[in-house]
Amino acid sequence: MRARSTTAVVGIVGAAVLALAPATASASGLPSYEQWQSDVQKALTGVNEYLDGARADHTAIVLDIDNTALETHYHEGRANKPVLSAAQHAQQLGMEVLIVSARAVGGEDESMQQLSDAGYRPDKICLREHGEAKEDGKLRCRKEFTDGGLKITANIGNRSTDFYGGYFDRKFQLPDYGGQLS
């Protein structure tokens, strides 16, 4: 009888401790929101100083949307504040903020509204054409912007497809935890 009651007490105490402990990872294996934000901050270390030094005529930065500009996985529709801060700093310097996303053509108005609702004021958007691979669409968009006379000084994204093929000076790669954040 004593072994059962001891086991029950240990089980109850253990459950209580787990219930009170802060979440460090979600069921999907992704880190907590707080850890993700810490990792985002690390990835963006020095971005404002870099932008200060890169200021010139016709300069721009590129942002991806999902899990970069917006907290799509953790808080859908909400701004990823460190990225929003970098975008606002770029615009204060006179740079354009360009959106390049793997979202499909036809979704420009909805995407721009989501970004606006979250506090962004992007200058232009370019989305992936139907049938186009993600990396090819993003490369095409950056090429079109540079062919139009803009110099992309910084590219902020969270996937390798955000950086494929160049047409930017420096990348700031946010975590995607092995592809778990798309």
Biggest sheet descriptor: 5 strands, parallel
Helix count from the secondary structure assignment:
6
CATH class: Alpha Beta
* CATH superfamily descriptor: HAD superfamily/HAD-like
Question: Radius of gyration from the CA trace?
Answer: 21 Å
Helix content: 40-55%
Query: Would you identify the regions where 5 or more consecutive residues have pLDDT less than 50?
Result: 5-25
- Name of the CATH architecture: 3-Layer(aba) Sandwich
Distance between the termini: 53 Å
Order of helices and strands: HHHEHEHEHEE
| Mean pLDDT figure | 88
Q: How many strands in all?
A: 5
The amount of beta strand, in percent, is 15-25%
- Look at the helices and sheets and give the structural class: alpha/beta
Shape: globular
Strand order of the largest sheet: 3-2-1-4-5
Might you state the CATH topology name? Rossmann fold
Q: Please tell me the total number of domains.
A: 1
What does this structure look like?
With 182 residues, the chain is α/β, with parallel strands linked by helices. It has one domain: 3-Layer(aba) Sandwich (Rossmann fold). Helices cover 41% and strands 16% of the residues. The protein is built from 6 helices and 5 strands; from the N terminus they run αααβαβαβαββ. A 5-stranded parallel sheet has the order 3-2-1-4-5, sandwiched between helices. α5 links the parallel β2 and β3. About 12% of the residues have low confidence.
